[in-house]
Each structure stands twice: as C-alpha cells, then as structure tokens.
Amino acid sequence: MFYSSTQRKFWTFSSEDELRKLRCQANQDIRQKHEASGKDCSKLLTPDEELMVCQYYHNRLREFCVKFQPPMPKSVMASASSYFKRVYLQNSVMEHHPKIIMLTCVYMACKVEEFNVSIMQFVGNIRARSEERERAVDIILNNELQLLQLLNFHLTVHNPIRPLEGLLIDMKTRHRSAEEVETLRRWAEEYLDKSFLSDACLLFPPSQVALAALWHSGNTVGMDVLSYVHHCLGKNGDGADQTLLMNQIKKVQEVVGNVPQLDASLVEEAKAKLAAVGSLEVTHDSQGTKRKQGTEQQGKQAGKKKAKQAKSAQEDGGLLSLSSLE
C-alpha cells in the first residue's frame, strides 16, 4: 500500500520548492568537492543546466522504453522514470552520467516489475557493433549496485497505472456503460505517459495522479467526471473533502502541464559542458566481471533464441543506436 510505503515516507515531497532546493544542494555539493580538490568550478553546470540535461535524458529513457522489443509494459517505464527522478534529486549529473544511469534504471525496472529479459536481450535493443554492446553490458552490470545505493535500496514504485484501471472499472459499475467509459482510456493513458516526465511522482500519491488523468480525459471527450468524484466522496466525505481533492487535482495538472519544452541548442551546450567536466564513471570491479561472465551464459542462450527477432527489429529501425542516446 502506498500510504505505508518507502515511496511515501522517503520519496514524496511537499512542494516543487523542496525539490528545487534538493537539486540545488546536489549541485552545491559537487562544487564543494571540486573546490576541495583544487579544481576550477567556473565551467561546472548550473542547477538549471543540470535539470535540462536530466530532462533530455529522461526523454531518451522514454523513447528507449517505447521502442523496446519485446514490447515493454508501461509499469517498467513508470518505475524506471521514478528511479531516474530519484537519483538526480540528490545527486549531480556531473558525478553520475545520466546516459549510464538511464540504461541501468530501465534494466533494474525490468527486474523489479518482473519483465523477463536477459542482459543480452536488453542491450540487443541498442543498435551498435558487438563490442559496443559488450561494453554496454559491462556498464549496466557494474552500475547496478551503485544504483541500488543511490536509491537507498527503495525499489518498490507505486505508479498511477493500476489506480487508473481501478477508477475506470469503478465508473463502469457506478455510472456509465462500459463502452462509454472506455472512451476515456486513451486520453487518460496519454496523460499518465506525460506525467512520467514530470515531477508528479515525487509530489503526489499515485491515486491523485490517476484521478487527474481521468479528469483530463473527461474534459477532452466532454464527459462529466465531476459527478463521479462527488459520488465517490458522498458517503465518506463532505464539501471540504471535495474541495481539497479538487485542489489536489489542479495541482497535479499544473505540475504535469509545466513540463518544459527543451531548447535543442541550449541542451547541446549543456551536454558539451558536461562532457568537458568529465563525469565520473564507475570503475569495472572484479565482482561486476564475474557477474557478467555468469550472465553471458544465460544471455547467449536467450540471445540465440531472439537473434532473428532482434535482427529483424534492427533492420526495421526499431532499435536505438548508442549515438541516439547521446
């Protein structure tokens, strides 16, 4: 349950200002490390530039998940997005490169959400030469433990996908025909996809995000969702409860609607600064090498089984190249 979860206790915050302060503190921490080692801090990224780089790679994360073969459940993308958001809430892109963290977040989410793919199948979705895929295997496996530490080993993510499904089922039983309610699904699911790119997962319970998605969908198709909200609260709530909930829905809509549109030229400038800083990469330790060797046996068997499928997908342009993840 969300209300007794680590997500609510450790990863749900009171305001966007609190998120901003945490990100600024992460930027300040890396500056202090550079100053302590006698390095020049004038060329480090600003908090705004860090946020821009994070948003860029978050978009790449979503693209990778959408194009993944075999098709990836949306719960995997939701968990990976939450992991990515959590990491850069208290850490700098100048210390942990977002491209590496992005891929590791998705692979970790595949495991947690029980989406069964081997590491070889996973990197098979990166269009690259075989040696580059081998390097991607090394990087992902060697960064898993570090990602766990950055997340404080809090891996369970309560996303709004299941609450939305529950709301749709409840609407069908309470108010309207199944066909009529199903017209809400498309727009509500698109709204949730957009919410994954926002800070909504760090600010609101998943049930409120799901209700905001339903509200948005109702407004889009011209269906009255307000009466459903009133009916839900009619027995156990009062006018104050309804007002409070509607205010929360409006706050969710504001956060989701304010996802910034990135300026390509500014993003490239920020990425160039990041490259110049020379982000620290995790060293390849012996434990990671042993894990890779053990995983390769499993991966080769599964990889052979999926070789034709992967090759076909690559020829169709369904895979992402390493350069496209830059």
From TrEMBL:
Positions of the UniProt region annotated as Disordered: 281-326
GO molecular function, one term: cyclin-dependent protein serine/threonine kinase regulator activity
Pfam families given in the database record: Cyclin_C_2, Cyclin_N
Cellular component per GO, a single term: transcription factor TFIIK complex
Keyword annotations of the record: Cell cycle, Cyclin
Gene Ontology BP terms: regulation of transcription by RNA polymerase II; transcription initiation at RNA polymerase II promoter
Record-annotated Cyclin-like domain positions: 59-142
Assembly mode: Associates primarily with CDK7 and MAT1 to form the CAK complex. CAK can further associate with the core-TFIIH to form the TFIIH basal transcription factor.
Function: Regulates CDK7, the catalytic subunit of the CDK-activating kinase (CAK) enzymatic complex. CAK activates the cyclin-associated kinases CDK1, CDK2, CDK4 and CDK6 by threonine phosphorylation. CAK complexed to the core-TFIIH basal transcription factor activates RNA polymerase II by serine phosphorylation of the repetitive C-terminal domain (CTD) of its large subunit (POLR2A), allowing its escape from the promoter and elongation of the transcripts. Involved in cell cycle control and in RNA transcription by RNA polymerase II. Its expression and activity are constant throughout the cell cycle.
Family: Belongs to the cyclin family. Cyclin C subfamily.
PANTHER family named among the record's database cross-references: CYCLIN
UniProt-recorded name of the protein: Cyclin-H
Native organism: Branchiostoma floridae (Florida lancelet)
Top-level taxonomy: Eukaryota, Metazoa, Chordata, Cephalochordata, Leptocardii
